[in-house]
Amino acid sequence: MCAAFRVAASLIRVLYHVAAGSVLGVARVLFAAANERCLRCMSQAALGRSVTGTFCGDLLVGAMAQSWRVLMQGLTSLVFLCARADEYVRPPPSPLVLTAHDKPAAHPQQVHISTVGSDRMRISWVTDDRNAPSVVEYGKSRGNYTVSTTGGHATYRYFFYKSGAIHHVTIGPLSPSTTYHYRCGKAGDEFTLRTPPASLPIELVVIGDLGQTGWTASTLSHIGGADYDMLLLPGDLSYADTQQPLWDSFGRLVQPLASARPWMVTEGNHEVEALPVVGFAPFVAYNARWRMPHDESGSASNLYYSFDMAGGAAHVVMLGSYAEFEKGSEQYAWLERDLAGVDRRKTPWLLVLLHAPWYNTNQAHQGEGEAMRAAMETLLYEARVDVVFSGHVHAYERFTRIYDNEADSRGPMFITIGDGGNREGLALEFLKDHKSAHMSVFREASFGHGRLRIVNETSAVWTWHRNDDECATVRDEVWLESLASPKLSKPTAGRHDEEL
């Protein structure tokens, strides 16, 4: 038995005694020691380097990283899922695709962009050099940077892991539907972005539970194969699950797409990473790395926020399934204010994203979104939200318009799109006798991504693209009519085959 497994076994025994009332300090010491050794190996492996000497060789690097990953996945499940005896059993995990970084320490990596207000962009990146400048130079032609903007950076610690400098710089004002070329930190590569349009039409990619596996790489390839204006992600990004080098690897994996179009994200359960025994607060890595425009939308938390698109023709609300949401909570009060400020005469489209689905006929994660649904569904219904996107369940499912567990033409259409490519595999078991099955229009356990093209003030088309060999197959399609339209009718049924 290698050292990693002996440490893991000792840790499990200590945690058992801690739960029974033993001294917490013992757990802290063992946990930190194990984490430090395994993170060191994982960091080197993620960078594509061998670790030599008495501590670990190539074989032991893989063994320790794998044992630690499995251990932490199990502990996370115990802490956050409280699985029942009949909980859905997932297929074996998929191997990770680790993206190495072998460039100088001041070279920007993990570059991604997000919208801030109507005419600005936040550029975020990481450098191993913590003294590298937080500067973005940009312009409308290659290599000709006419504007330079300075921001700031921060770092965070997680056990013995210390992040690189995480830079955030907001640039603008920018023109809509315009291509800009930019460079981060006065070093490294030039990147290219295109700003979203100032009016309809606009095309959105929607994908959840992305991870970093071969399945993820396939999904990203299909997404990049056709143009779009913005990507929306309802939680579960890197699946780091306390293994902080995996946040770095994930950032490098998605950089080609995330540096070119805005990625707007909200948190999932795999972003929590809280470990009460050793004193780590939730969402430390997520909040540091993926800063969203919550201040601009009046939200006190990076876990929920909103923003406008297409000159205000569409309003997007990103909710936090893992922030307090009950009536009387900060998130509930913020949502009330936010929805009250939406004038549907000027904003015909209203979209909501959250992680844990409110309606779900899959055996996996049954009922996990019910408390949030009970607390907030009426707010969404009264605001006439058009579509609610969620993730968490690793499959695709589209419902008709629903309110309070009944089909209702004035309620939102609910879509689960947690099929991006996570390491845990697909959730294969749909319940044919589920109470909501008669409202489930289409469901399939396959990897893929969705696209919402808002054509004009009244009409939009949703398509789900399944990863199918060399191309993304359009497997489901439906036209929607805005609920702000005077004519409130049910959406036209899309094409679909028999339920699996």
UniProtKB/TrEMBL annotation:
The chain crosses the membrane at residues 14-34. Residues 108-192 form the Purple acid phosphatase N-terminal domain. Residues 411-476 form the Purple acid phosphatase C-terminal domain. This is Purple acid phosphatase. SUPFAM superfamilies: Metallo-dependent phosphatases, Purple acid phosphatase, N-terminal domain. InterPro entries: Calcineurin-like_PHP (IPR004843), FN3_dom (IPR003961), Metallo-depent_PP-like (IPR029052), MPP_PAP (IPR041792), PAPs-like (IPR039331), PAPs_C (IPR025733), PAPs_N (IPR015914), Purple_acid_Pase-like_N (IPR008963). Belongs to the metallophosphoesterase superfamily. Purple acid phosphatase family. Residues 204-396 form the Calcineurin-like phosphoesterase domain. It holds the Pfam family Pur_ac_phosph_N. The gene is LOC123397963. The keyword Manganese does not apply. Its EC number is 3.1.3.2. CDD domains: FN3, MPP_PAPs. Keywords: Glycoprotein, Hydrolase, Membrane, Signal, Transmembrane, Transmembrane helix. It is an enzyme of class 3 (hydrolase). GO terms for molecular function: acid phosphatase activity; metal ion binding. It catalyses: a phosphate monoester + H2O = an alcohol + phosphate.
